[in-house]
Fold this sequence. Notes:
Blueprint: H1 3-8, H2 20-23, E1 40-42, E2 45-51, E3 57-61, H3 64-68, H4 72-75, H5 81-98, E4 106-111, E5 120-127, E6 130-137, H6 149-160, H7 166-181, E7 185-191, E8 197-204, E9 215-216, H8 223-229, E10 235-237, E11 244-248, H9 271-280, E12 284-292, E13 295-304, H10 312-358, H11 361-365
Amino acid sequence: MNNALTDSAPQPWDDGLYSIIRHGTSLTTCDSEPVQTPGCIQAHGVLLVLRLADLTILQGSDNTQAFFGEPLAMLLGQSIARVIGDERLACLQNMLQREVLERNVLYAFTLEPRKDAAALDVCIHTTDGVAVLEFEATGRQEGEAERDYFSLVKAAVGRLQTATGLRGFCERVTTEVRSMTGLDRVMVYRFHADQHGEVFAESRRDDLPAWLGLHYPATDIPQPAREIFKKLWVRPLQDAAGPLVELVPLANPDTGKPLDMTHCALRGASVMYTEYLANMGVAATLVMPILVDGALWGLIVGHQYQPTYFGYQMRAACELVAQVVSLQLKSTEYIEQQAYRLRVDAVHQQLIAKAAQDGDLMAFFNGE
Length: 368
């Protein structure tokens, strides 16, 4: 890909108001696509943008009718209390005062089910002077208990600490993540010095073909996507072939700027990525970065072959696992490197001892 061309050529979204639905992307523009401001969300949830000063709705996804029974046009300019009620409004105000929410997504509360709408988990974070609320169906049946993800993560971390060697550790990572999420395939995808990727470890359904050891070009993951993975710990895509819903208006009416959706679970995915998944027959993905000293060492990539719900609690558990893996991988890799150096030193010492004994180093190499 000729970055010089893509950097200099004007793009149709040079005014900053990009939308996946309106503009899409192509192989010639994927390295300049503003993936952090896609202007669209995945249609299984609702996103509302609030002015921090008064919690007035400034922007929203154009699907509120299906979730709240009111079109977005009726909600814009209104207090968020119109959607969540006064009690939940007080909860949000309390969180905004007490919690660190800047680019840090936290669960806020669950909205009870309404007439024809399911119960909705609500998450909040702040960015660039606005509060972002994401509403997603809980995915739980009535009366169904939430899985105890704390115990699952605790047990997984304990088993990760017993793994030996870099490959053994990565194999254990794929096993633990797949056990916790129920995904069809989980891989540790390792980046090499030239940025191309390798499937370094894998856990999969028995009927799926093995991808272990396969290598993929660096262009499979464009630079904008790599940069985003340095800023978040989990990226869910519940239905790669599902519809997208546009934000209205595309620009914040107070600032004229597009919404930075880097940390939004509902953030719409690039057309290039969804087509890539479709070509592999993959319907849903859950991706976590492995960061070592702030650099992207690789990815934990989960695939599912049918659309799948990834609830907040599961995502939070995966975030914690990704953080633990990132911390432990550094020490695991260091220990393996040290062991290799010790083996090299041992061979070196054997060579020196043999040469001293025989009095002729060349004779040792010649096998005499």
